Amino acid sequence: MIVRDEAARLARCLQSVRGVVDELIVVDTGSRDATADIARAFGARVETFQWCDDFAAARNHALRFASCAWVLVLDADEVVVTPDARARLARFAATPGHVAGQVELENLTEDGARSVTLLTRFFAREAGVAYAGTIHEQITRHGQPLLGRPTGVRVEHDGYTAASLHGRDKLARNERLLRARLQHAPSDGYDWYQLGRTLEVGGRFAEALAAYESAVEHARDEDPHLPHLFESAATCLRALGRSQQALDWLGQVEGSFPERVDMVFLVALLALDVGELQRAERGFLRCIELGQRPIAPTSAESSRAASTTAPLHNLGVLYECTGRLSEARAAYERALAFDQRHAGARAGLERLRALH
């Protein structure tokens, strides 16, 4: 781990890996709180690193102190939640041919929504394996991205909540570092994508859209983030009141990702915005169908709600507005079966009850 001023979160993270790992390496990049003391209380080896606006350099410094054959990398705002994580990681490491493994990173947001990304965070400690990239760093092997296979281990991350992002000024820091990188490498599509994400989270949709357009311009067909890039650009267009343009644009690429539920959902939502109700209904029903299938491994971020509560709630609204009240009630009830706290579905049922 690399950390800085993480006293509020660190104990929770380290507690989650008790019995999962054999050693804890915590590299402090300049904390002014009790971060180092908390790490030592958990038995961690605490080292320091002079921060130089380079996440890869800090990560690689931490790797120098690891002594085990395999390394699991976490951040302080993450928690391992898989009960048998150690057994899963041990089986993975013992499988011939395995060099790197992905964890299922579940991002929690302010409204309770969850998105999932598969990230390479578990890898064999060997020559040539190192991090690259001053920000949004990636693990590489002899200079090439090291792509992992799913380990079955899930990690929860709450670093995207408003308090975490704004209170710690992460958005401003990330924007500064990304713009500095792009000054030296203006054709790096991945950095443009990450800049767009940073700006979008900050509510700067027009600027985010411009960054996403640059990312599309420099994208490659094999880029794993490509579908999420298209979806993010369309989401910004929608936020700017340009749903028809977003629908037209996304319609040109949706055929390349026919089983990507997030894209199917967004196309349906945009269709609902512009009054294409039949297209919207077909799309929402398709989302529910796709949600019943095993999830295909992908490193593109994906929302759990896109195949459960979100399409069902929107179907309820569509049916309610078109007078199909029994179907609306059934859709809202199915949404609540996935999440009893879903405010939209609850409000929909209350409206229907008021009619009787």
Topology of this protein?
Layout: E1 2-3, H1 10-16, E2 25-28, H2 35-41, E3 45-48, H3 55-63, E4 70-72, E5 78-80, H4 85-94, E6 100-108, E7 114-124, E8 129-132, E9 138-141, E10 144-145, E11 149-157, H5 162-167, H6 170-184, H7 189-201, H8 205-217, H9 226-239, H10 243-251, H11 261-273, H12 277-291, E12 302-303, H13 309-321, H14 325-338, H15 343-354
Parallel strand pairs: 1-2, 2-3, 6-11
Antiparallel strand pairs: 4-7, 5-11, 6-7, 7-12, 8-9, 9-10
Helix pairs in contact: 6-7, 7-8, 7-9, 8-9, 9-10, 9-11, 10-11, 11-12, 12-13, 13-14, 13-15, 14-15
Characteristic terms for this protein:
356 residues; alpha/beta; Spore Coat Polysaccharide Biosynthesis Protein SpsA, Chain A; Serine Threonine Protein Phosphatase 5, Tetratricopeptide repeat; six-stranded mixed beta sheet; three-stranded parallel beta sheet; 15 helices; 12 strands; 16% strand
CATH architecture of the largest domain: Alpha Horseshoe
Helix fraction, binned, reads 40-55%
According to CATH, the fold-level topology of the largest domain is Serine Threonine Protein Phosphatase 5, Tetratricopeptide repeat
Termini Cα gap: 57 Å
Write down the domain tally: 2
**Strand tally, please?**
12
The shape, in one word, is: globular
Q: Low-confidence parts lasting 5 or more residues at pLDDT below 50? A: none
The CATH class name of the largest domain reads Mainly Alpha
Radius of gyration: 22 Å
Strand content: 15-25%
Please, what is the average pLDDT? 92
Following the backbone from N to C, one meets helices and strands in this order, namely EHEHEHEEHEEEEEEHHHHHHHHEHHH
Q: What would CATH call the homologous superfamily of the largest domain? A: Tetratricopeptide repeat domain
Structural classification: alpha/beta
* Main sheet makeup: 6 strands, mixed
> How many distinct helices?
15
